[in-house]
Predict the structure.
Amino acid sequence: MINKLTKILKVFLSYIALLSLRSRKKVIFGAWFGNKFADNSKYLYKAMLNYSDIRPIWITQNKDVYENMKKNRYEVYLNNSIKGIYHQLTASAYFTCTGKADVSYYLLSNARHIELWHGIPLKKIMYDDKISNDHNRENDKKIIKRIMNWPGKKKRYVVSTSDKISEIYTSAFNLDKSKIIQLGQPRNDVFFSEEIEDIGFPKEYKEKKVILYMPTHRNEGKTKIEIEKILDLERINNICKANGWIFLVKKHYYHKDEITEFDKYSNIKDITKEIYDSQMLLKYTDILITDYSSCYIDYLLLDRPVIFYNYDYENYIMKDREMYFEYDSVTPGKKAENYLELEKELIELIQENNDEYRELRKEVRDLFYSRDNQNKVSEKIIEHFILKK
């Protein structure tokens, strides 16, 4: 009941916000439900700082994010502060990467909402996800559902990367195809520029050979991923020591509080709770190990080898997420269904540098990214949504 009343209150405030006067050059940004300075929103925000006639403002509900950004002299406000409320009421546009809840969307109902999203989807998302999402469930009364069709929906856009992804986003976000704009992912700009790299990223990871294990979540974090059971950490550590490599483990945000003991391994590090930017990690990774995560699709732009550790594929498809594509056709790399297979493929890549997937990577890369979106893209996004009259 309280949840429904909160929704009704937010919708009421969104109609009040329709009356607000908005500055065309003031732009709001948020990410990951207001809890991070990260992802596509972060990189587009940083690019917009180079435009003297645009005022980009970051909104967060996380006090640590707020303090860290203030130290770096970014303009940032807490979402429920007086200034945070004021700037959201007077901005003409806002950019998010996980949805409107990245900011106080009910204060921005007369502003354009540009959804950058947080990765090209291999798994079905939003309205297309019939297994884990509740978009189509009849949980609320009809009057609540009618009210929740809040006024900001008419000014909503989603940024895609290719014709195929635009087609997917049309159904996933339940939007007309005219609202899907094919302009690319700002977070990948860092692959092509040293100028926008994060200061303080560990020098060690830039200089040494790095293997990065970055699995996706299981059931939005409700199903635990037991690293010790799916990886032989002792053997991996010995392989890395013998060859001078580092093995990094970055769990999904939903699994960040799951504890694995890594302290006794000299060449394995769990960086899940570190604030290292994921794109920086990908940029300086030599071999990526993942499963069904879209991180490998970003990594395709770097044209380096990927191992797909799909030990629970059947269960994942049945109980967690359906996919948009036939898995083997869009995953250009060796598949490992158990640890021993993973170890075999890893040793081959480390010792023999046997990369046989270059041509297939190119084919898949061109499917997910149009040629115009395989390099820096932030400037053209800014031009399209903010500068274009």
Notes: The domain at 203-368 is CATH 3.40.50.12580 (Rossmann fold).
